[in-house]
Each structure stands twice: as structure tokens, then as C-alpha cells.
Amino acid sequence: MSEKVQLEKIFLFALCGMFVAFGINIGAYAFLYSSGVLGAVLLVREYVRGNITVSWKFFIPIVFFAYVAITPGHLFKDLPIADMFSAAFFAGAAGCYFFKDKMPSILFLLPLALSAHFLARVVASLAFDYPLIETTGYVGSLTLSYSHHNVVGVLASFGIFSLISFPHPQPTIRRIGYALMAILGIAILLTVGRSTYLGLAAALGLFALLRSWKLAVGGMVVAIAVGAMALPFMAPDAQKRITGMVLAPHKEPNFQNRLPTWSIGIAGFKESPLFGNGLRTFETYSRSYLDKHYLEIKKNNPYALDKAFAHPHNSYIAIIYGWGIVGFIFIFLILALSLSTTKKENKLLILYCTTFILAFGLFDVRFLSRDGALFFLFPIGMAVINSNAILINSLKMK
């Protein structure tokens, strides 16, 4: 067996392991980085051997990763974010190049593992009185073994989008995928993650426009019905959180106390509009800002908190605060490049993920975490491969 084939098999193992690791929350960082490094090495080898030609388009994301790594607004502060971004991107790009025909099976592993993780927790809750809903500084919600309920929401949403975009060619496994989507939908409901609800609703609206409004409406009706049945069994704080989102979202205290955080992010952007400040500086900056202006903020907003958040709870503000106008332009160009993909499956996945992010990002940020990097950059890597950024010179794709 040639060294090249051996390396490809190791990469395939790492790629499959990455999705399982994310689904069960064990070893996710190790598999993400190993997949990214192996994917980059394999793509470079293809280029050196003359099997692919790389156009200037492929370097747009790479230059962005270098920009984030350098972090002109605060040198090297966001290097860990750049590492996660580049690893997810190269894993997606190389995965789509080498294993195009296997992608439905590879992507299937995330919803399968995450559903198993959720069902195992349900069984533990019923058999051993292990808490299914936990409160870890937030409202009572489903967090499983992750640090935040939004991690469950983002990973479950990515699992649903991948099942929709890359239906498995085997009918039996495809039907299992439908069951997994239902399980993940219930898990998302129990996260009480309003940003996830909003992102998923936006993606469902896009599905209605692109694919089938009948299926979309049916899915929405089922989701509302399940939610209505589950609501009485939820904790009072969770009930209040959900009903407040529907009845009067602009008056909800959690919404109101984010307004000052947004203003802090905008203030930081105004201080360094071109290159930003580095996204990972926000907590320190907001603490300093609150120390100087908290009494004034509290006077104007009784719901304001004297708390420094890790991010401004808005992806748009996070981008311009962290990476400035230059970073915003980079992200716009990368999305435009990925949406020019010629493959229907890749286009659908990137459209669902982008629509989710645009709505989810109104109230939350996932760029700082590995799940956010996977959600955002892995499908972009897949799409870029089929956007004429890489031209295949060999007779057929590997």
C-alpha cells in the first residue's frame, strides 16, 4: 500500500472520528486539529504532484485565517480562533475532494452520535434519576455534557442540515436519518436556546423557498405541537423564557440586558474601526468600559448587568469589534465564494448554515468555540472545492 493511500485512510479515520467526537463530546479538539492538518497536507501533496491547480480564490479564506491569527488590533490574541477556523476549513475541503462519494456517510455520523448521546442521557435520567435538564448559570436547559446549551443547538442544527442536504443513498439509512432529525429537533427544543430557535426557523423558511413549502409547513406544525405539549413539563423559568420570546421579545429582561453589551461592542469598534481589537479581548474591554460607565448605563437601562461577557452577544458586532471592517469584508468574500459552488448538495448545506448564522447571530456568537468553527468553516471548505477555486487536473476526482 502506498504512503499516499495510507495517509488518505488515516485522514478518513480522523474525519469520521471528528464527527463522532463532536457528537459525544470526547476528543473533539484532537480530531478537529488532526483532520485539519492531514487535510492540508494531502491537498498540498495533490498540488505538488500536479493533480490540482489552485486559483487565487482558494487563498481568500487562507489569508483571512492568517489575518485573524495575526490579529492586527491586538497581536496574536485570536490565534486560537484562527487555528480552529483553518482546521475546520481544511478538513471540509480535503474531505470533499478525496471522499466526495462518502460524504453522506461521513456527515451522517454527527447526528447519529449526537442522537445517541441525547438518548443515553434520557435513559440515565429515567433509570438512575440523572438530571436531564441542568442549570449551569443559565435557565434550566438541556446541555448534555457540553459547556452551554447553544453547543447542543448548533451541533444538532448542523446535523439536521447535513441530513437534508446529503441524504444517504441507501433507503434504510435515509429513513433512519429522518428519525434522527426528529430526535435532534426534540433536543433543540429542550435547550431553550432562543437564538437556535430563530436560526432554525430561518433555515426552515429557506427550505420552504428552495425545496418544499409543504414539508416546511408540516415540520413547523409538528415542532409547534411538540413544543406546546412539552411546555407544561418545563421548569417555570424555561416557560417564561419561551413565552416571553413569543409574546414580547423586546421587553424581555434578557434582551434588555444585552443592549448595553451591544453598545460596548460598537464603542470598541469605533476606537479601532479598520482592524478591530481582537475578539478575545472583549471581556477585558467590556470590564474596563463598565467600570467607567456602569452607573450611567444602569440609569438608562434598569436591566443592565455589571458583568463582563466573553463576547457582545451579536455576531455582526463581534466581527466588526474583533476584526474590523477588513475582517467583515473577508467574511463577505468567503461567503460569496462558497455560495458560488457548482454542487447542489454543497450549495444547500452552505445556504442553510449561512441562513442559520444570520438569524442566530442577531443575539449570540459561536466564533469563539470549536462547534462554531465546525458549523461555519467545514461546509465552506466543502463548497470552495467545488467553486473553481481548485481545478482538478487528473482524469477523475479521487
Descriptive account of the structure:
The protein has helices at residues 3-24, 28-48, 59-70, 79-98, 103-128, 149-165, 171-191, 194-210, 213-230, 236-247, 253-256, 259-271, 282-300, 315-338, 344-360, 370-385; strands at residues 52-54, 390-392. It has 398 residues and is mainly α. It is globular and about 65 Å long. The model has no long low-confidence stretch (mean pLDDT 90). The chain crosses the membrane at residues 12-44, 56-75, 81-99, 106-128, 148-166, 178-209, 215-235, 316-337, 349-367, 374-395. InterPro entries: O-antigen_ligase-rel_domated, WaaL-like. It is a multi-pass membrane protein. This is O-antigen polymerase.
The largest β sheet comes out as: 2 strands, antiparallel
Question: What is the β-strand count?
Answer: 2
Helix content: over 70%
Global shape: globular
Order of helices and strands: HHEHHHHHHHHHHHHHHE
User: Cα distance, first to last residue?
Assistant: 16 Å
- Can you tell me the residue ranges where pLDDT is under 50 for at least 5 consecutive residues? none
Number of domains: 1
Number of helices: 16
Mean pLDDT: 90
Strand content range: under 5%
Structural class: mainly alpha
User: Order of strands across the biggest sheet?
Assistant: 1-2
Rg (CA only)? 21 Å
Protein name: O-antigen polymerase
Transmembrane segments: 12-44, 56-75, 81-99, 106-128, 148-166, 178-209, 215-235, 316-337, 349-367, 374-395
Subcellular location: Membrane
Membrane topology: Multi-pass membrane protein
